[in-house]
Amino acid sequence: MSTNRRRFLLAATALALPGLASAQAKNPSPTTLPVMQVWKDPNCGCCHDWVERLQAEGFTVQVFDTGNTAMRQRLGLPMKYASCHTARIGGYVIEGHVNPREIRRLLAEKPDAIGLAVPGMPVGSPGMDGEVYGNRRDPYDVLLVQRDGTARVYASYFKS
């Protein structure tokens, strides 16, 4: 390889790397996140919308259209935190319309907990925020569910 060609390739690589690193920091590749498994009703539109949101955010999602009640119970999440779909990622349970940002935070912080839950189906949460809801955004909390079945607020949305 000629000296000029080698210098050109090194310079081009050096110029490309900062932009590449910046893009990867904003949107880590799906391989940096564990695969998420989701159990949901096959006819639920908001569950489908939530899964699409996660995929758009770089999550790899495996969907089981079998409902989620049995899986929620098997994973040890108390019924009082129930929603319309149950997921598992990185050893944690994700119940309901949890924002991808909080899932990433959970995976980074690794607290000793069962996982995250958004009980019910609050309008404005991911998957419950389509045009059909008229841009309504009800306040809601993302809960960190502890191993003893208690929970604390992990994040709040749309509260003043």
Describe this structure in words.
- The structure is a single chain.
- The protein has 160 residues and is α/β, with parallel strands linked by helices.
- It has four helices and seven strands, in the order αβαβαββαβββ.
- It has helices spanning 3-26, 45-56, 69-75, 100-109, and strands at 36-40, 61-64, 85-89, 92-96, 115-118, 140-145, 151-157.
- It has a seven-stranded mixed beta sheet with strand order 2-1-3-4-5-6-7, with helices on both faces.
Offer a quick outline of the entry.
The chain is α/β, with parallel strands linked by helices and 160 residues long.
List the helices and strands and how they pair.
Blueprint: H1 3-26, E1 36-40, H2 45-56, E2 61-64, H3 69-75, E3 85-89, E4 92-96, H4 100-109, E5 115-118, E6 140-145, E7 151-157
Parallel strand pairs: 1-2, 4-5
Antiparallel strand pairs: 1-3, 3-4, 5-6, 6-7
Features:
160 residues; alpha/beta; 4 helices; 7 strands
Give the strand tally.
7
Q: Which class do the helix and strand fractions yield? A: alpha/beta
In the sheet with the most strands, the strands line up as 2-1-3-4-5-6-7
The succession of helices and strands, N to C, reads HEHEHEEHEEE
Mean of pLDDT = 85
Beta-strand residue fraction = 15-25%
Number of helices: 4
Distance between the termini: 63 Å
* Low-confidence region ranges: 4-30
Q: Tell me about the largest β-sheet.
A: 7 strands, mixed
- Which bin fits the share of residues in helices? 25-40%
- Overall geometric form: globular
| Gyration radius over CA | 20 Å
